[in-house]
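Quick illustration for those who missed Monday's session on complexes.
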Amino acid sequence: MSANPTTGQRIQRTVPAFTQLLLDNLYHTHGQAVQSASAQDGYMALSYSVRDFLVERWRKTTEAQYRANPKFVYYFSAEYLPGKQLARNMLYTDTMNVARAALAAHDLNVDDFIDLDIEPGLGNGGLGRLASCFLDSLATLDIPAVGYGIRYEYGIFKQMFRDGWQVEKPDGWLMYGNPWEFPQSDEMVMVGFGGTVESSTDDAGNACSRWLPKYQVLGEPCTVLVPGYATETVNILRLWRARATEEFDFQLFDIGDYVKAVEQKVYSENISKVLYPNDETYQGKRLRLQQQYFFVACSLHDIIRRFHLKNDDWDLFPQKVVIQLNDTHPVIAIAELMRILVDQYGLDWDRAWQIARDTFAYTCHTLLPEALEKWPVDLLEHCLPRHLQIIYDINYRFLEEVRSRFPGDEQRVARMSIIEETPRRQIRMAHLATVGSFAVNGVAELHSRLLREQTLRDFADLWPDHFQNKTNGVTPRRFVQLANPRLATLITSTIGADWLTDLDQLQQLEDYAEDAAFLTAWRDIKQANKVALTEYLEKSIQQHFHPDSILDVMAKRLHEYKRQLLKAMHIIWLYQRIKANPKLVVAPRTFLFGAKAAPGYHLAKLIIKLIHNIGTVVNPDPDVQGRLKVVFPANYNVSMAERFYPAADLSEQISLAGKEASGTGNMKFALNGALTIGTLDGANVEIRERVGAANFFLFGLSVDEVAALRQRGYNPMLYYQQNTDLRNVIDAIATGGFSNGDMKLFQPLVDALLFHDQFMLLADFQAYVDCCEAAAEAYQAPDRWTRMSILNTARCGFFSSDRTIRQYCDDIWRVDSLRVKA
Ligand code: NBG
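Prediction with N-acetyl-beta-D-glucopyranosylamine bound:
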């Protein structure tokens, strides 16, 4: 079938047309004949065919955007976790049914191809997934937007378990090709590194600077299409890939030094080679700084090119461009834009600064000091000497402003400076971000308040209007419709399909919370989802859990502040109760974990090992009689998460209050009808407010109580001494109860608990155990539990990322939608 040259339209959504398209793509695009096609060939042909539908919309979107010359949102993020794309793209192009029918005619099952789709692991956790939810909502709301990031050749490591220990393997996700990206080498960008700065004076006597980089690296954009749901808009995500300017050095090659001949190429291309697998910790590694600069330099170049397509007055820039900085990772962009405006385009400093400051907005995603990036001054001097000068200039002017507002308060000046002087001279990227942006936001009410009152308090004193809150959200398309089709079907047949783009509509489900037939249908779906999950686990890791047991799930990155160890301690507590009295009536429970630990985070890895060892002791114990089960499949990722949410009964959100900025898994569980057991932390606070205190299992210290306890002097040992149950739990770990008598293995965990307990597990232990008991008790009344479950879904419409994005559009970005005509 050939394209219609005037409309570009060549595809129709009918089974014969789709069949033809598939064959055409298999043969012409992929170069394979039907007779010899493998499953992978079929997958590629199917993906290309679905992509064809997207391309048509993309062309239309690009055209409409070009014509309208609107303001664009540019989302800068070092991480994205888009999840599998084939099923999503089929849903969004409405091609699932024709594809299924076309394939069935050849005895092929569309689901087998969906399984072959690879998930890009270009992020660590919540921050990367949030970026992908935001792109989804931006397109769905028809907002002109482009995401920018890095095309890591290796994403987040693949996790395996060997004897209960985490083992990491490289994630070669591009091994079999990627049908979802368009490499656009004609739009390659040159990026400099290192070198020196040349100072001179222009004809008018003004000082000028020119950066003379030591070497250059090419950035090649790979464009991924981001469709909106139920709209024509297809936005793009541009991921930059580093390429060497020279393939090899001919002179060295000629004299036979083949390794040295390609050295520069290897060095350059290392920049986009691999994602740093840290979550909430920052490592001052040069390559990481190079990655950050590389992608923002490429992206700014691209943005300015796009701006100049239709505009030439720089003062219009902030009216056409808003750049959202996703955490501190892209913050060097502020200095880069200043460099471009001042050094390359000759704008005077004040005008350039006005433009930069009106263009950037910054989202902070943490409260942990170790996650706030700081770059050593000498490292910057070496890699980006001109940027360092610019940062000094920004800081000089900024500190003048602080001094004039708070005369004589030099301590404040030192606290607020972009440069930290001791123990080592470092650039505080969060300060640079705050100074160089017109808005700063946190990601949940509580988090935004703590940012204002603690982390960035001095800045909030200076510029109170700068600070905002934008509570996170999640896309209901992926996390309800695609992940939980049974529930989605029930919801749509009950209240219609509008909830998918207007999640507040879920409220209408409240009317059915007393309807016996609806309750049964709801419960049956949860049960079916649990059965499906147990079948999947059986098949993939030969582990089974009983679908009648309470499915209690803790799935998130492994970090001490998230307190997976507290969950482990609860399991041990339960086990000890059963051992003490095997006839005790306890509700059967399955504890399901999903978590990756940063490869260098030893305590986190030890917690993984402990959870595994608890499973090895508890699962086969005849006294337990299958009433407790610990399951911990390896390699938790977006696809696995999509299997967990629909099946979960209980969602564990048990971080120490004041540590989890927001959480987004908490929202996904609740939307799928899981009840939360949690602390007053991050977005839990808002979830509880919405679903109602009666439908949320709350425990633990509040932020204020944590602060007061620390003030008084927290001594974990007191709790250990005073609480027998707690002591028994810790003693069992310490004396080798879960390590075949080895008293050394878990000693670092025991010591951390007894002598530091930074995250106050011991203080919250009793409250947590009691709350778990209350939840298990509540589960015994199925109708009441189901009603609570329905109310969780019905009242969580607020947590749609569509709502979050609308708020960003109205309060920060000031952008309008641009509807693309069909
Ligand atoms: C994470 C927080 C989460 C939050 C996500 C998305 C970082 C630095 N922060 O609580 O820990 O939900 O960001 O905002 O990864």
